[in-house]
Design goal:
Helix content is about 35%, strand content about 20%. By secondary structure, the protein is α/β, with parallel strands linked by helices. Among the domains are: about 10-75, no CATH class; about 210-345. The strands form three sheets. A seven-stranded mixed beta sheet has the order 7-6-5-12-13-15-14, sandwiched between helices. Helix 11 (about 245-255) links the parallel strand 6 (about 230-235) and strand 7 (about 260). The model has no long low-confidence stretch (mean pLDDT about 95).
Amino acid sequence: MPAKLPVGEPYWIAGNPDNAMLSRIESIIAWASPLARYQGPGNTPAPNGTIILFEPDFLDRAAAFIREGVAPERIRCMPIPENYPWAFWDVWGWFDPRPDLRAQIASFAAYKHAVEACSYLGGAKMASRVNDWQSLAESHLYWGQHREQLNSHKADMEKVSQRLADDHSREIFDLVLRSDPQELWTHFTHTVFRACDYLEHDGPRPGETVLNLGVFSGHELPYFLALVDNGIIHNLDPLGHDLLSDYARKTLSTRPHNVRESRIAAGATHKMEYFKLYADGQMCLSSKGTPGADIIFYIQPLDEYVEVQKIEKVHFIKIDIEGMEPDALTGLQKTVQRDRPTLSLAIYHAPEHLWSLPLRLMSELENYDFYIDHFSPVRWETVLTAVPKERASYK
């Protein structure tokens, strides 16, 4: 997001003035860079200052401006992570009816409003029961209900902490394990407007190949496309691109040669399994006879996928697949050992994943650095990033 534009810096938002997204973008940037000077929206910006691109064809527009002689450093791209509750776009939208709360966004009043605005946090029904921070600690949104299990594995979690690459990761890991509602909300409000999950410590680079396991709304895909340039993104999900947001779908349509859609689930072995449907349309591995588990999908080891697709080298793997992460790692062992990619892995779908998945990768991957970040105001979206030491600094 184009935050912290220099004091006095003139900037234009390049795009259709009738675009319904424009007013929210104007308010976000004015909040993030209050001392910069907004020159207005339009498709023909002035010859100086910063140009901010946000529409789905932002990559084509950036290339066109550069061909016209605009210096690349003048151009800032602002991909929109639409229809994803833990990214800046939807979070800012929660407060459209209460813009006053943006000035005190870390407050309990702002949190309660967010609960009411976001169905993932419980909506109006949950908000009516939220009276103070402490009343939340034992809800399903936090790890309080699993405290006994977490306490019984303190030694494992200490091993994870010791192997992490920096103090920040250790602090975030401690924050996740404490699962204090106020602390998590404060951390979230301090990071959501400057971070994109899966990309904090490494990311795809020009010409690289990405395996993207778990697609959902595709909020990260515009970022991936901006980073890979002429590289390839393989989107692997039983539902393929069915749940993509309108923005992500339009963005992918501008780069069809950079994207592959594969409607498979990643696992350890070949088999057919039962899945159940979440309220938001996502699928979750289940078992025959479980209520709602009446959809059958094919599971495939991705080492075989890589071989069949004749992928010479995989550089970056994102895995967020609703609890199937352990089996997916088993089905990717040959590829990971051969190519030494960066892995960005969800470790929050089960309590034991918080320590078992990091310890597994720490034992299997030599000469890697390990980082932990957290990208939601509740217990979800804890991400472990494993970066091979030979990759140059990402930042």
